[in-house]
Design brief:
0% of the residues lie in helices and 52% in strands. The chain is built from no helices and eleven strands. Strands 2, 4, 5, 6, 9, 10 and 11 form a seven-stranded mixed beta sheet that branches. The chain has a four-stranded antiparallel beta sheet with strand order 1-3-8-7, with no helix packed on it. Strand 9 and strand 10 form a beta hairpin. The protein is globular, with a radius of gyration of 13 Å. It starts with a strand and ends with a strand.
């Protein structure tokens, strides 16, 4: 089992920045951590993921604005979001998985981009 707790969401003006964090706990070998988001009335969509000591991948809509990073010592993942747009408004979910395991999800954190 893995327990994921997100933090760092909030209200920001267009063009602003936010940094989301997700701390993982539990006896489980994680090799992929990532972020998804879900806007009202929309399906959950992929945002970014990072493979342990490997590559990262981004949705086209956030490429060059968002950066995902891992803190291996703290078993955490971060999402630095710059140049935020109103269309980035959503609940952001942390996800983690490992060999032979399902995706585990956090409870979500709200990000609102509005003037």
């Amino acid at each position: 089992q893995v327990h994921l707790v997100e933090s760092g969401g909030g209200l920001v003006q267009p063009g602003g920045s936010l940094r989301l964090s997700c701390a993982a706990s539990g006896s489980f070998s994680i090799n992929i951590m990532g972020w998804y988001r879900q806007a009202p009335g929309m399906q959950r969509e992929f945002v970014a993921q990072i493979i342990t000591h490997g590559n990262s991948k981004y949705a086209d809509s956030v490429k060059d604005r968002f950066t995902i990073s891992r803190d291996y010592a703290k078993n955490a993942v971060h999402l630095q979001m710059n140049s935020l747009k109103p269309e980035d408004t959503a609940v952001y979910y942390c996800a983690a998985t490992g060999p032979g395991a399902p995706y585990y999800w956090g409870q979500g954190t709200q990000v609102t981009v509005s003037s």
